[in-house]
Design brief:
The protein is of the alpha+beta class and 222 residues long. The chain is built from seven helices and twelve strands. The strands form four sheets. A six-stranded mixed β-sheet has the order 5-4-12-11-10-8. Helix 3 packs antiparallel against helix 4. It is globular and about 45 Å long.
Amino acid sequence: MKRAAVPLILFLFGFLLGLLCLFPMSSRPPDTAPALSVQGSEGEDGGEVPTFTSKDTAALLRSAAGVAEALKYKDYEALAGYVHPERGVTFTAYSTVNLETDQNFSADQIRELAQDDTRYLWGYEDGRGEPIRRTIAQFLEEFIFSVDYTQSTSVGVDEIVMSGNSLENLKEAYPDCRFVDLCYPSLDPAYEGLDWCSLKIVFAPTQSGWYLVGLIHSQWTI
């Protein structure tokens, strides 16, 4: 099992007391955020590779903090404000992203998800193979925000903190995006790390700010 944990304190992430001072959470939606300072450089294939400033990274962290907070308090109106207006947000149950089969929802659908009693197919349970059929609200509670990620002990910015047997293809699935990985390398020392879990929050850059396009749940799998 690979581990590349990044101490939370290095990023001053915004959930703990000292972090809030440097990266205060903002309730304003992404479309009123400062414009990104996106520049381009030529990649190996001749295409343009975007580069970002430290201010952009701070905004990325604030957006991730806002998404995590909205999930924690089930504030779906606030969560919808982060969702990309054209691409929507895609949910992945176990690390490996499949944009063709993973469930995708628009901002309007997220805004009204508490009233949506449709049981969607989100994938299949690890080890058992049983279909994961849940409402959006149930899936968010059981998979996406199964633990309080606002208190995560390790944070990766554009880096996956931990991985297991599942294919980690986030960067291939979202090549134009950045992400924040909120991770618990261990929940109970008795399990010696086999109970690790993480939530990867994926954003697409626009000239008006960061928009949420993906939420990926990861954990130890068989």
